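Why does residue order matter? Because the sequence determines the fold. Keep that principle in mind as you read this record.
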Amino acid sequence: MQTDGQLVVVALGGNAIQKPGEKGTATEQRANIMGACRHLASLINKGYRLVLTHGNGPQVGSILLQNEASKDQVPAMPLDICGAQSQGFIGYMFQQSLRAAMAEHGLDLPVATVVTQTLVSTDDPDFSDPSKPIGPFYSEEEALVLAREKGFVVKEDAGRGWRRVVPSPDPLGIAERDAIRQLVDAGVVVIASGGGGIPVIEEEDGTLCGIEAVIDKDLAGERLAQDVGADGLMILTDVPRVAINFGAPDERALDRMTLAEAERYAAAGHFRAGSMKPKVLAGMRFVQSRADRWSVIAGLQSAEEAVDGRAGTRIVAG
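Structure:
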């Protein structure tokens, strides 16, 4: 496939940073990120221009735990600032690792992280019934105290304890899109919108204000891809393809899905919320936005094949 310098937004799943069962030490996360960056460097070596985005769930969870543990000595920070903190340190590790991985191909391109704000609306229905669990588990008594004293919304989480829940609104736009475009045009590999971006609302005077929420990173990655004028959207996760009847004896992996097929499968409940559903929705939205755009959902280990159409599940218009 001729790349023609195509611009691709790559959305990396949590397995690119922290794998199940790991403690999340800096050493573990650096090693995982370096492994992911070797795949990304191969794409850059093929001629693709990349903008990267990534998850931050475990990392923000750890920051919130640190807030809780030290609250009597250090003031706890609100969720938007915790998200910004995670973007910074994850971006730092990606910057170092990607430069090292590119050097293995003889490439020397600048890499920069943009602390990114994502615009949302308080009219989003998720603000009326928050559903995204974050942070540590509590007993029911502890959770009700937090609800009373701090105004948190708390819910029981699948028999594991009580947790704070926050809204997960739909992303409407990337506040830093012009800056990201300028960096891309200058030949910079950009890391942006980490963890879905920092949720912000726009006040009447045009100023931006952080809000307590969490944005799905795949949906935000799709919004980023549209806002920077990308040609392709590649969502890398921990499964090789999208499947229908997942986990059942008649499970079937898909190499290709038309928009009509994806809509039908989603309506039938084949894609779970918080897992494959937002990935498929993100891919559908991107393909719908312009006829010549492409989207693929694939395993991290097959990134090089997926971008060429030889692995993963490609979503096409028809």
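The mean pLDDT is 93.
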